Amino acid sequence: METTKFLLNEREMPTSWYNILPDLPEPLPPVLHPGTGQPVTPNDLAPLFPMGLIMQEFHPESYIEIPEEVQSVYHLWRPTPLYRALRLEKALGTPARIYYKNESVSPAGSHKPNTAVPQAYYNKKEGVKRLATETGAGQWGSALAMGCMFFGLECKVYMVKVSYNQKPYRRIMMETWGAKVVASPSTDTNAGRSVLAKDPDSPGSLGIAISEAVEDAGPREDTKYALGSVLNHVLLHQTIVGQEAMKQMEMAGYYPDIVVGCIGGGSNFAGLVMPFVKDKIKHGKKTRIIAVEPEACPSVTKGAYAFDFGDTVCTTPLIKMYTLGHGFIPPGIHAGGLRYHGMSPIVSHLARLNLIEAIAVHQNATFQAGVQFARTEGLVPAPETAHAIRVVIDEALLCKKTGAAKNILFNLSGHGHFDLGAYDEYLAGRLKDYEYPIELVKQALAELPKVA
Amino acid sequence: METTKFLLNEREMPTSWYNILPDLPEPLPPVLHPGTGQPVTPNDLAPLFPMGLIMQEFHPESYIEIPEEVQSVYHLWRPTPLYRALRLEKALGTPARIYYKNESVSPAGSHKPNTAVPQAYYNKKEGVKRLATETGAGQWGSALAMGCMFFGLECKVYMVKVSYNQKPYRRIMMETWGAKVVASPSTDTNAGRSVLAKDPDSPGSLGIAISEAVEDAGPREDTKYALGSVLNHVLLHQTIVGQEAMKQMEMAGYYPDIVVGCIGGGSNFAGLVMPFVKDKIKHGKKTRIIAVEPEACPSVTKGAYAFDFGDTVCTTPLIKMYTLGHGFIPPGIHAGGLRYHGMSPIVSHLARLNLIEAIAVHQNATFQAGVQFARTEGLVPAPETAHAIRVVIDEALLCKKTGAAKNILFNLSGHGHFDLGAYDEYLAGRLKDYEYPIELVKQALAELPKVA
Questions:
Q1: Any residues with CB less than 8 A from the CB of A202 and at least 6 apart, and which?
Q2: Residue-wise pLDDT tens digits, A331-388
Q3: How many angstroms separate the CA atoms of B414 and B87, rounded?
Q4: Distance of CA B109 to CAs A427, B25, B102, B103, Å?
Q5: Domains of chain B, each with CATH number or no CATH
């Protein structure tokens, strides 16, 4: 029987995160203060984040040691297994070899704890007692609730009201780990109260929830804010995924020709691919590295590369990124983790430098791929992950035509246990594909902030 | 850092199942034909099961080779990891070492696929096209839906109506793998129609669902029936768990002093413990082996050891087992997998021979243990599994008093991702403890079948 599972033991887990910043062929554009238009300083960020994380945003060295306390928590599910999807290959009749890194094995069900745990750790270390955050579908909120639990921090999650009502299991999971969860807009903040005053039935949005969490954290000495994607330090923490995968591909005996991940804010994708991007920069590797986004929210394939706000209500610094405009509200696709108007600065920069490419796919095609994966490999993937699988299958089918036995690696970023409602709609033929809403994007892009 | 994770690679996965029958110090009482009162023959069982499985019920040898096709599917999640629960130990302040075998990593989320996959395989091998089964909370139905998918069999699941309505995600998971799921009582069978004729709003029961599945399979040439616990061949397939755990405990450097599992029909418990029971029988080991059952459905601690029907409507052969009476309907505790009036013949026999012991625990105490586990080790366990964890914690706290550094091993039989509604009730203080319903049991035991 062929080997299909490549395992590392605890001692083989990487003990440093890989920081791509010093290896970039051109430096990353700075983040700007929205008032002054000048690059933000560490002190500008201090009300929201602990200095340990802020300094990682600007870190000059290629590797940052993972604190022992964080490694010890990682060991609860890391190193994660790398699988060869032999049954999927056979079903496709492809000569390609398909490998996936299984990040769904964390207790929260996705890659998100890789950053939630160190974020909780660095906050704890600097005396913070409490973290506030927002969550949409709940993957990030769950991960942070768990991270805070390990380090004895309180955790307050502002959960977009429509998800709070539709996904009670995610809420209960956070509460089981001890977090306090409220539906956003809530009456706990000025931002929430002002929205409710205008519209008591507001379904909420990620933009509103961010405003609530930031307002919660800003003035309180004991509380900081935590973000689950986009920022450099978040992507940094995810590089444990790619470093493990590289070792495991060595065990498998192949270097990937194609590496694939889905992108919302960009962290699971960047975490897997950055060590392979390094090989392109440093060793001239020709790997194709593909980011997959929803056709309904195609920031990299159709957005502008510009300075924009990270949130809807214009409270964050200005970030140079691919964006559909901070005012753009993506259509209600089920891959809630990919409904973000922008893209992390690092992923945007890598796309700009042609070190990675992006592809947009439709919702029904992604669920078709997700079901095909479940019916061959067993595991039911998250709708976000199914975006990556769609492109993996397409590339494998291309190999069938050309006869090329390419090695394809992708990040199985999460399971779909809490997304089965979406599978139900797909199986019943009720799922809608959304065309790229070009007029709404035009309007949103017209309102990009002016930067000198 | 101390090692907390003990992994086997694919080549180290056991390639045989362990069959305890020839090693028992006294032979297992035969299963009786309800009409004749004589031991059933393989032919009596042929309408419901393929001969490959039937012969495993009576197998005379200690080991049965696992077919390569089954091993290949097992590799999708097996060997499963064994963990040391160091964070739980610290939280308890116990000198005990606590280890758990994590069966929640299968795509269906529990140990059930260990038998669903070979059951589908042996049926396929004998030309069966379609399997019918019942499911309560959905763990077994999910596992069989997945097992059938791997071997191209159709799968029809009669899901108890109250669960069908309360747990749509389990239903969708089965459908995602291609199974057909109906709420039981259904209009698809005489049994279902007759129940609906009397009570159109019947919430259903496992007993009714079994009758529907058996009726579905019985007369059809192309269809057989599949059961997720109780029978010898089901327990046999689960011994892969205990054999792996034994190797992993060797890696950890300790032989367990106490081995714990929860019991409903008995399969996850038996699968873990039977190799350790063998060591007691053959090598005089003094291991304490503890089966944990709900106080609301305490078949081994409070039931009679007698011949009884396996189902509520008296269609199965008569099984010598600990039973609360086939007419006993257990109170509505959330650990649906433990709501069974009887106990597998092998587990009953082992208890009778004092090779294992049983303990009954209350619902709130089990959820308290489940939450403590989630808040230390991260993973949210299934309510069934939380029964085992309750006793593990109690034993570890006893070690704290006595100072004994005992080694405790338990089976983490499943995750609680689809049981979070029960956690919600527990956290809100709404969960009820059910006293042992002694009068109902007395009535049910008065109706045990008479055997000469």
A1: A161, A185, A195, A196, A208
A2: 888 888 888 899 999 999 999 999 999 999 999 999 999 999 999 999 999 999 999 9
A3: 20
A4: 21, 35, 10, 7
A5: 5-9+67-109+232-445 (3.40.50.1100)
Residues 6+ apart with CB under 8 A from B56: B19, B64, B232, B233, B236
- Assess contact for B96 and B408: CB atoms under 8 A: yes
Strand partners for A110: A414
Q: How far apart are CA A45 and CA A61, in angstroms?
A: 21
- CA–CA min distance B273, chain A (Å): 24
pLDDT of residue A5: 95
| Residue B288 and residue B357 in contact, taking contact as beta carbons nearer than 8 Å | yes
Those residues whose C-beta lies under 8 Å from the C-beta of residue A414, and which sit 6 or more positions away, are A103, A104, A109, A110, A111, A112, A139, A337, A381, A382, A384, A385
How many Cα atoms within 13 Å fall on the side-chain side of residue B21?
A: 20
Q: How many CA atoms lie within 13 A of A417 on its CB side?
A: 27
Q: Which single residue is written with the structure tokens 């689960």?
A: B238
Residues of B in contact with A379 (CB under 8 A): 76, 107
- How does DSSP assign A129-163, residue by residue? -EEEEEESSSHHHHHHHHHHHHTT-EEEEEEEHHH
- To the nearest whole Å, the CA of A149 is away from the closest chain B CA by 7
**What CA–CA distance (Å, rounded) separates B41 from B56?**
13
Nearest to B141 by CA among B116, B104, B105, B122: B116
Q: What residue in B sits closest to A379 (Cα-Cα)?
A: B107
Report yes or no: B427 and B371 within 8 Å, Cβ to Cβ.
yes
Range with lowest mean pLDDT among A50-59, A172-181, A435-444: A435-444
Q: Which residue of B has its CA nearest to A380?
A: B107
Q: Which one, of A153, A285, A288, A293, lies nearest residue A223 by Cα?
A: A153
Task: Determine the distance from the C-alpha atom of residue A33 to the mean position of all C-alpha atoms in its chain, rounded to a whole number.
Answer: 24
Q: What residue in B sits closest to A419 (Cα-Cα)? A: B169
pLDDT in tens, A406-436: 999 999 999 999 999 999 999 999 999 998 8
Cβ distance B413 to B383 under 8 Å? no
Residues 6 or more apart from A262 whose CB is under 8 A from it? Answer: A268, A269, A291, A292, A293, A335, A338, A384, A385, A387, A388, A411, A413
- CA distances to A269, A288, B207, B394 from B92, rounded to whole Å, are 39, 50, 41, 10
Identity (one letter) of the amino acid at A320?
K
The alpha helices in A345-437, defined as continuous H runs, are 345-352, 363-377, 383-402, 420-427
Compute the distance between CA of residue B125 and CA of residue A425 in angstroms, rounded to an integer.
34
β-bridge partners, A410? A100, A260
Residues of A in contact with B421 (CB under 8 A): 168-169, 172
**Within 13 Å, how many C-alpha atoms sit on residue A425's CB side?**
13
How confident is the model over B98-122, as a mean pLDDT?
98
The b-or-e profile of A385-420 (16+ CB within 10 A means b, else e) is: bbbbbbbbbbbbeebeeeeeebbbbbbbbbbbbbbb
Q: Which residues pair with B292 in a beta bridge?
A: B262, B359
Q: Which residue of B380, B385, B415 is the best one to mutate when testing the A interface, meaning the one whose CB has the most A CBs within 10 A?
A: B380
CB atoms < 10 A from the CB of A279, how many?
Answer: 14
Contacts of B177 in chain A (CB under 8 A): 374-375
- Cβ(A397)–Cβ(A389) under 8 Å? no
